[in-house]
Write a structure and sequence with these properties.
There is one protein chain. The protein is of the alpha+beta class and 516 residues long. It has 3 domains: 3-186, sav2460 like domains (Lipoxygenase-1, Sandwich); 191-214 and 224-232 and 261-269 and 279-395, no CATH class; 429-515, no CATH class. Helices cover 28% and strands 19% of the residues. The protein has helices at residues 156-163, 169-182, 290-331, 341-378, 444-447, 451-472, 490-499, 509-515, and strands spanning 3-5, 10-12, 17-35, 47-48, 54-55, 58-59, 65-73, 83-89, 107-111, 117-122, 131-140, 143-153, 225-227, 406-413, 422-427. Strands 1, 2, 3, 4, 5, 6, 7, 8, 9, 10, 11 and 12 form a 12-stranded mixed beta sheet that branches. Strands 13-14-15 form a 3-stranded antiparallel beta sheet. Helix 1 (156-163) crosses helix 2 and helix 3 (290-331) packs antiparallel against helix 4. The two termini are 19 Å apart.
């Protein structure tokens, strides 16, 4: 059974050969330090980092990546080691995020060699910190335990190493970041930025697989309202280029261990016609997998939508404010209140307002049309966890073997263009529960619905979310318990009860509530 730890909580380790898996929404540097009984690091020979990835009983990744696997053999650690601290840091000087508060909360899991999770920890509550002590494995009375730490450092890697007693921590932190920079071509890059016009800036270097021990850079590939999720099969990746001849020892160059058929960079968009925007492509973002590229692309669409609508509404407010100011100035002069001068002033001010509003609307329509075209391409390519219920991908649904990266809980749409819908995704595992509000004050639309119907719709929404979570998670990952004291949710819950996916029948009445 997996222990889901919170900050400060510990759990006994049943074995000494372990794997520590790190999952973050952006490339991070992963390392580990060895400490004595007091937690002090005796020297650089007790630190595993990308520039020196192997120690007796410990191995870490050599580069920045969104996912890491650290190998630990507690019985093979040097004598005198009583503590192993896992460190995460954001790479510096690469144009990525500079604080953990701007990225999804990292997730750390301690597993056996068979992949079975022993303990997990989600590092929530980080803000300005750029480095964090994620967790520690420590010896207590000849038994090893894991503790969730989550201690962040705004001063970065140097401050974190200094806190563990490392001499010349600043110099060591700089050398670690330099080692990361040298292997930048092998790291999983964050989503590429977009230009103000909405087109993504394509980086010249793709991201390569971070799993081989020392792979050289891989060859470059060719060039708000919410509804419950009610919206083709996943697209296949473009044909892989044929692998080129690998340079062997006799050729004087390093052997390329990168898988020639694995693609990590975004697919190249079809060439645009002169004067026309580039044609959208599903997966048009960087990432280690197609699911990650689609996730990053959808969040890029959401950011574009937010910027475009904010600019439009700000322009409309400015036009209205300018018209009011011009009318006040014109009508404050008594001479303009006689004859047609006042009427002409009003017409002039309104004409300027309409011109500004019209130009803003043209820009918004152009941006929304591009987003609508991108949404039409992306939607059919989504995996089940990202797809709406009406997507044909559900027709070929199979029991998943791994936890998906994210979950779709609805659509984002606008009153300015109701046909544009962007999937609303949340990262998994959920950091907090999902609250479904059945109050009439929840929104203007809810105020027009009678209370009984609103509660029924809220219950159906909650059941739909539970069904989606159960459908995209591997069996046995979590259990769903339902408390329904009044028995009013029997109808919406019937499909889940009949399917047998609930941990037990809904708990009704005081006795049922008490038992759960």
């Amino acid at each position: 059974m997996t222990a889901e730890l919170v900050r400060g909580q510990n759990h006994t380790l049943p074995q000494t050969r372990l794997e520590i898996r790190v999952s973050a929404g952006t490339p991070v540097v992963a390392g580990a330090t060895l400490g004595d009984e007091r937690g002090t690091v005796r020297g650089v020979e007790w630190i595993a980092h990308p520039g020196s990835p192997q120690l007796p009983g410990l191995e870490v990744s050599q580069q920045a990546a969104a996912d890491h696997r650290l190998a630990v053999d507690l019985e093979a650690l040097p004598d005198g080691v009583h503590r192993v601290t896992v460190l995460l840091a954001l790479p510096v000087g690469v144009g990525g995020p500079t604080r953990f508060g701007a990225v999804p909360a990292p997730f750390v899991a301690v597993t056996g060699l068979d992949g079975a999770e022993i303990a997990t920890f989600t590092l929530t509550g980080l803000d300005a910190e750029s480095a964090v002590s994620a967790l520690e494995l420590y010896r207590r009375q000849d038994a090893w335990k894991v503790r969730a730490v989550g201690q962040g450092y705004a001063g970065g890697l140097a401050e974190m190493l200094a806190d563990q007693g490392v001499a010349e921590a600043a110099g060591l932190a700089g050398s670690i970041q330099e080692a990361v920079t040298r292997s930048l071509a092998r790291s999983v890059a964050p989503p590429p930025p977009r230009t103000p016009g909405g087109d993504r800036v394509r980086h010249p270097t793709g991201a390569a697989d971070h799993r081989p021990p020392t792979p050289p850079p891989a060859p470059e590939p060719p060039e708000p309202l919410t509804d419950p999720a009610t919206t083709g099969p996943a697209q296949t990746a473009p044909p892989h280029p044929a692998p080129g001849p690998a340079a062997g020892p006799s050729g004087g160059g390093p052997i390329n261990y990168a898988h020639p058929g694995r693609q990590h960079a975004a697919p190249t968009a079809p060439p645009a016609q002169p004067g026309q925007p580039a044609q959208p492509v599903a997966g048009d973002a960087t990432g280690w997998s197609m699911d990650e590229r689609l996730y990053n692309q959808i969040w890029g669409m959401f950011e574009d939508l937010a910027r475009a609508v904010a600019a439009y509404r700000s322009a409309v407010d400015f036009a209205e404010s300018r018209m009011d100011q011009e009318l006040d100035r014109a009508l404050s002069d008594p001479r303009n209140r006689i004859g047609g001068a006042g009427d002409r002033a009003r017409e002039t001010a309104r004409a300027k307002r309409d011109e500004l509003t019209s130009r803003a609307r043209e820009a918004l329509d152009r941006d929304l049309a591009q987003l609508a075209a991108e949404s039409a391409v992306v939607e059919p390519a989504l995996p089940a966890a990202y797809a709406g219920w009406g997507n044909p991908v559900w027709h070929a649904h199979r029991i998943p073997m791994e936890i998906p990266m994210a979950l779709r809980i609805g659509d984002l749409h606008l009153p300015e263009r109701t046909d544009l819908r962007i999937p609303l995704l949340v990262r998994l595992p959920l950091e907090r529960g999902i609250w479904v509000d059945s109050g009439r004050a929840a929104s203007e639309a809810a105020a027009l619905i009678d209370t009984d119907r609103l509660r029924r719709l809220a219950m159906e929404t909650a059941v739909a979310h539970a069904a989606r979570l159960l459908a995209v998670y591997p069996p046995g990952e979590f259990a769903v318990h339902v408390i329904d004291p009044a028995g009013s949710a029997a109808g919406p819950l019937a499909p889940l009860v009949e399917a047998g996916v609930l941990a037990g029948p809904p708990a009704a009445g005081p006795g049922g509530v008490a038992s759960v």
